[in-house]
Amino acid sequence: MIIVLLGPPGTGKGTQAAAVRNRFRIPHISTGDIFRRNLAEGTPLGLEAKGYMEKGELVPDGLVLDLVADRLRGPDCRDGFLLDGFPRTEVQAEALDRLLSGAGRSIDHVVLLEAPDETVVDRLAGRRVCKSCGAVWHVTHNPPPADLVCPECSGEIYQRADDAAEAVLNRLRVYVRQTGPLIGYYDAKGLIRRVDGSRPPAEVVEALFRSLA
Ligand code: AP5
User: Fold this and answer.
1) What is residue 133's predicted lDDT score, i.e. its pLDDT?
2) Which CATH superfamily is domain 2-26+79-115+166-212 in?
């Protein structure tokens, strides 16, 4: 099964991806997590992506496409995968289609998670993330451990730089301008499954699984 998770920042893509990965036993590929890992390790890719990410801008397509193509060649992607945060532009969507069709494959579902702007602004202001494994908490809805040490991997729990208020507002604008057109792109192919991401997490998971049936 090949699934794309689409939706504005903070609608719960990362949160839901964990449930989808466990249910379908497919790898969760988050381009945001890949960039953050590179940033933490100080690689040239991470350093190049840093400025764009902190301002809430998209990293240039050229930097994203090779790393995704490379990742999808991994043996764990043979039976499917879940893409979170990719594609984000029409150039990326077309490149993904070409990559898949070249391998005789295609996307099965595009899940569009939706939530009002005020909901996602609140969620991102309170979000805390593990620097190592990407696990996600929220200071009020799902508080992290008091010592800010990840119970899964012992990584440091921190607040993402792009969750600062100004960057969040820019990310929302960038989403509308650059990623919004993908809704029409995938709708025309009959792939879009709309899921209300503003409900409590367990309800969102249920709706998401129903949308994939
Ligand atoms: P990325 O990491 O992909 O960020 P994003 O798409 O902005 O999405 P988020 O991670 O902010 O939100 P989410 O929807 O995953 O929400 P979450 O589950 O964490 O990208 C970051 C940056 O990297 C980009 O801005 C760009 O610079 C670059 N980048 C990445 N991919 C790129 C690409 N393809 N091309 C170019 N540039 C790229 O949930 C948020 C919070 O809400 C958490 O605290 C969570 O606990 C809480 N929450 C979740 N669901 C619920 C719920 N149902 N009820 C209550 N609280 C909830």
Assistant:
1) 87
2) P-loop containing nucleotide triphosphate hydrolases (3.40.50.300)
